[in-house]
Design a protein that fits this description.
One of its GO terms (biological process) is amino acid transport. Pfam families: Aa_trans. GO terms for molecular function: symporter activity. This is Solute carrier family 36. It is a multi-pass membrane protein. The protein starts with 24 loop residues before the first helix and ends in a 5-residue tail after the last helix. The protein has one domain: Amino acid/polyamine transporter I, CATH 1.20.1740.10. The longest helix is centred in the N-terminal third of the chain and has 42 residues. The chain is mainly alpha-helical. It is built from 14 helices and 4 strands. The radius of gyration is 23 Å and the shape is globular.
C-alpha cells in the first residue's frame, strides 16, 4: 500500500499538481461554524414556538444527526475510488460527476447553484435587517418603544453589497481562513448575547404562554396557519444545519502531510467539532428563546425587538451578525466564483483578460494582484444578489424555502447515493434499505417545508410593495 508521504510531492504542489493546500482541521472547523451558524440561528426561537417543547428539540437533534451522518459519507467520497488514496474531487460537483455521472452532475449543479446564490441573497437580507435594527434600537431608546422608527433596508443592502464587492476579490478558500475565524467568533458572540438576554428575560419573571405542541389553534393561530407555520419551521431548522454544498470545497483546503491524518479523517473531526458546537448553541437559542417569548416569539429574536434594553447590547449583537454574514457570504460565494472562473478559463485559455494579473500597491499591506475578469464578474454577481434581495426581503419565508430546496438533494440524496456507489452496497441489503428510507423521509420533509415557505412568501407579497 502506498504511504502517505507519496501524497506530498514538494513544498509548492500536491500529489495532483495543484498548488499546495494550507488548511488544518481547525480552519475547516472554523469554515463549518461560519457556514452553519448564520441567519438560521436567529429564527430558531420562532421555529420552536411553532413546534412546541416536544417536536422542537426532537427535530433540532434529528437534523443534527442526519447532517453529521451524511457529512461523514461526503468525507469518504472526497477521494475516489479509494477514500484515502484515490483521486481528489476538489468541488462538490466534481465529486458527483466522478461518482454518479453526467446527468446527476447537471442536477447537482442546478441544486447547488440555487442554494449558494440563494444563501448569498438571504445573507444580504439578514445583514440589512440587522443594520436597520441598530438604528431602530437607538430610536426606541431615545423616543420610547411606541415611537415610529421606520427605516428602509435598501440603503443598508447597498452598503453590504459594496463591502462584499471588495472582499470578493479574495481569490479562493485558501485565503479565507482569517475571515472565517473572525466570522466564527462573531457567531459565538451574537448567539451568546441572544442566550444571555433570553436568560435575563426569563429571570425577570415575565409570564409567557408555552405549550408542548407550540402555538395553539384557536388562540394564537388558525388551523391552516398552524399547518403552514409548522412546515415553515421545519424548513428553517433544515436550513440552519445545511452546509454540505460547501463542504467539499472546505475539505479541499486541508493540507495533507506526513504527520497529519488523511483528509477524510481530519474532515470528520472538523465536522464533529463544528456540528457539536452548532447544536449546543442552537438548542440554547431555540429553547431559551421560546421560554423567554413563548408562543409570541418573533421571527428574528435580535431584530424583531423581543429585546429593547439594554439597547447597546442589542446593537452589539447586531454588529456581530453583520460582521459574521460578511464572512459567511464569502464561504457560499466562493464555489460560485470558482465554477464560473474555471469554466471561462477553460473556454478562453489565451484571453488576456482571463489570465493577466495586475499589481496594485496597498499602503502598509503590500502589492495585491488584481485580475480583470475576476473583478468584473464578481462585482456583477454581488450587485445581482443585492438587487434580488431588495425585491424579496422576506426573512423567515426565504430562510425556510432555502432550507427546503437545499437540504434533501445536497445534504442527503447525493451524499447517500455516492456512498452506495463507492462502497458497492448491495441492493436490498439492510444498509441499502436504511439509506433509501432516510432519503424518503428527508424528501417528504423538504416538500412540506417548501410548501409552507412558498405560502409564507405568497402571503407577504399580497401586502408588499417593492422599493417603497
Amino acid at each position: 500500500m502506498e504511504s502517505q508521504e507519496n501524497y506530498v510531492h514538494n513544498f509548492k504542489h500536491d500529489d495532483d499538481g495543484r498548488i499546495k493546500r494550507t488548511g488544518t482541521w481547525m480552519t475547516a472547523s472554523a469554515h463549518i461554524v461560519t457556514a452553519v451558524i448564520g441567519s438560521g440561528v436567529l429564527s430558531l426561537a420562532w421555529a420552536v414556538a411553532q413546534l412546541g417543547w416536544i417536536a422542537g428539540p426532537v427535530i433540532l437533534m434529528l437534523f443534527s444527526f442526519i447532517t453529521l451522518y451524511t457529512s461523514f459519507l461526503l468525507c469518504n467520497c472526497y477521494r475516489y475510488p479509494d477514500s484515502v488514496h484515490g483521486t481528489r474531487n476538489v468541488t462538490y460537483m466534481d465529486m458527483v460527476k466522478t461518482i454518479l455521472g453526467g446527468r446527476q452532475y447537471r442536477l447537482c449543479g442546478l441544486a447547488q447553484l440555487a442554494n449558494l446564490i440563494g444563501s448569498c441573497i438571504g445573507y444580504t437580507i439578514t445583514a440589512s435587517i440587522s443594520m436597520v435594527a441598530i438604528g431602530r434600537s437607538n430610536c426606541f431608546h431615545k423616543y420610547g418603544h411606541k415611537a415610529e422608527c421606520h427605516i428602509s433596508n435598501y440603503a443598508y443592502m447597498s452598503i453590504f453589497g459594496v463591502a462584499e464587492i471588495f472582499i470578493s476579490q479574495i481569490p479562493d478558500f485558501q485565503n479565507l481562513s482569517g475571515l472565517s475565524f473572525i466570522a466564527a467568533v462573531m457567531s459565538f458572540g451574537y448567539s451568546s448575547i441572544g442566550i444571555a438576554l433570553s436568560i435575563a428575560k426569563i429571570a425577570g419573571g415575565s409570564h409567557v404562554k408555552t405549550s408542548l405542541t407550540g402555538v395553539e389553534v384557536g388562540k394564537d393561530v388558525t388551523d391552516m396557519k398552524k399547518i403552514w407555520s409548522t412546515f415553515q419551521a421545519i424548513g428553517n431548522i433544515a436550513f440552519a444545519y445545511c452546509f454540505s454544498q460547501v463542504m467539499v470545497e472546505i475539505q479541499a483546503s486541508y493540507h495533507l502531510s506526513q504527520n497529519c491524518p488523511p483528509e477524510n479523517g481530519a474532515m470528520k473531526k472538523a465536522t464533529v467539532t463544528g456540528i457539536s458546537i452548532t447544536t449546543f448553541f442552537y438548542m440554547l437559542c431555540g429553547l431559551l428563546g421560546y421560554q423567554a417569548f413563548g408562543n409570541k416569539a418573533p421571527g428574528n429574536f435580535l431584530t424583531g425587538f423581543g429585546f429593547y434594553e439594554p439597547y447597546w447590547l442589542v446593537d452589539l449583537g447586531n454588529v456581530f451578525i453583520v460582521v459574521h454574514l460578511v464572512g459567511a457570504y464569502q464561504v457560499f460565494a466562493q464555489p460560485v466564483f470558482l465554477l464560473v472562473e474555471s469554466w471561462c478559463a477553460g473556454r478562453w485559455p489565451e484571453s488576456r483578460i482571463m489570465a493577466k494579473e495586475y499589481g496594485v500597491k496597498i499602503p502598509s499591506v503590500g502589492t495585491y494582484k488584481v485580475n480583470a475578469f475576476r473583478l468584473i464578474w464578481r462585482t456583477v454577481y454581488v450587485i445581482l444578489t443585492a438587487v434580488i434581495a431588495m425585491i424579496l426581503p422576506f426573512f423567515n419565508s426565504i430562510v425556510g424555502l432555502l432550507g427546503s430546496i437545499s437540504f434533501w438533494p445536497l445534504a442527503v440524496y447525493f451524499p447517500t447515493h455516492m456512498y452506495l456507489v463507492q462502497a458497492k452496497v448491495p441492493k436490498f441489503s439492510t444498509v441499502w434499505i436504511g439509506v433509501k428510507m432516510l432519503n424518503g423521509f428527508c424528501l417528504i420533509v423538504s416538500l412540506v417545508a417548501a410548501v409552507g415557505s412558498i405560502e409564507g412568501i405568497v402571503s407577504d407579497l399580497k401586502t408588499y410593495k417593492p422599493f417603497e
